[in-house]
Amino acid sequence: MADQEKEGAVAERRTPRSENAVARMARDPVSRRKFMALTGGSTALAGFLAACGGGGSSTSSSSTTTSSSAGAIPPPPESMFGKGDLGILNYALTLEYLETAFYSDAVKSGLFNGSNLATIRKFGDEEAQHVAALTAAIKQSGGKPATAPKTNFPLNDANSVLMLAGTVENLGAAAYLGQAGNIQSADVLASALAIHSVEGRHAAALNTLLGQTIVPDGAFAKPADPMTVLNSVQPFIVS
Amino acid sequence: MDRHDLKHPELAAVEIEPLSRSDVLLKGVLAAGAVYGLGMVGPFLRQALAKSGGGDIDILNFALTLEYLESTFYKEAQTRAKASGDLKNLITLISGDEDQHVAALTASIKQLGGRPVSEPMFDFPYSDTAGFLKLAQTFEDTGVSAYNGAAPMISSKEVLASAGSIVQIEARHAAAIRLQNKMEPAPDAFDPSLDMPQVLKAVQPFIK
User: Fold this and answer.
1) DSSP A34
2) Which residue from A5, A129, A186 is facing B13, i.e. has the nearest CB?
3) Contact at 8 Å (CB) between B157 and A181?
4) Do B148 and A219 touch (CB under 8 A)?
């Protein structure tokens, strides 16, 4: 009888991350220079989006726009955010800056009171915590955090602001989901997932407030690719 | 320790890449199983590990166990929870989602050449809507933490994408149930993660 040991029963190891992409980024002088040149301000982001032919009001109120093909979602543009995990963290940080700014504006608008105001404050506080954590993670790995874009959000009435909040949160969740497969480091992935599910909670809570379905994509959330995400937020970024 | 003395040497051979402190717990569970026999390990971990084919299949089977739990829970709740209006609609919606998760995970496991765990029998002790809501919140929050805990151990990008697309839905369910409970939909800025032994411990009381 063959040996009882079953070699095949050894659990597959997660592909070893031989070198943390962030460490690589910090070491490589060429990519570091390029990246630093582009993080001087939000002008770069606005310019990039213009070059992408960013569409105007592409934000839809319910379902997320997604990559059409079944293939992998590309990482965020390297020239904008940096390479590898660092690029993904800076992309996430940029989105979190936008969300934080939006909620801050919404609170200051005076359009809300009672439980809706409490919700907006709470969500804004959580996005600010995301900004802090992502910034710390980037710095810790020797990278340079992206700077906050200058923003301008429409604040006409409570309902339209809540709808915009819902759109942004649904989009943010899809953005994180889109990048999960591109993240090299298990630790960065764990952090991204811990944030991703919270954005899902925010989205569903806002969907509920607005009388919309909590699952605009159905039983399986759809990922969004960076160009779609960046084009969707472009209307709110001013240089 | 001589491998040939072990009751279940294949458990000793399971390697866990040390990603976090909590993996030490899983290693401990597996080590106990290797030495003392699978009875120490808990029926569902045992069942999952018994299938050959690697870590991703084990993780998918772990997820499938949780989805079976939720699917049964919500199916029963459609009558047992005595819900009406928005809550009734929510239960119907969530029930449908969990059924789809069961189907998708089952299909994924088969596609990878694994054997899906069989559906356990469950016992959910509650007698009114409030009791249902309390359990629902626990299950949804635990589900999010379970997926978030397991996902960094997944090898295949496709399996990771599936897990990600499901966990976001569980988070949405969690938020909606919490709102029904008049609780914070997103209590923390970062959802905590749980490892497999912690999750199994949490759900074991409901498995008959």
Assistant:
1) H
2) A5
3) yes
4) no
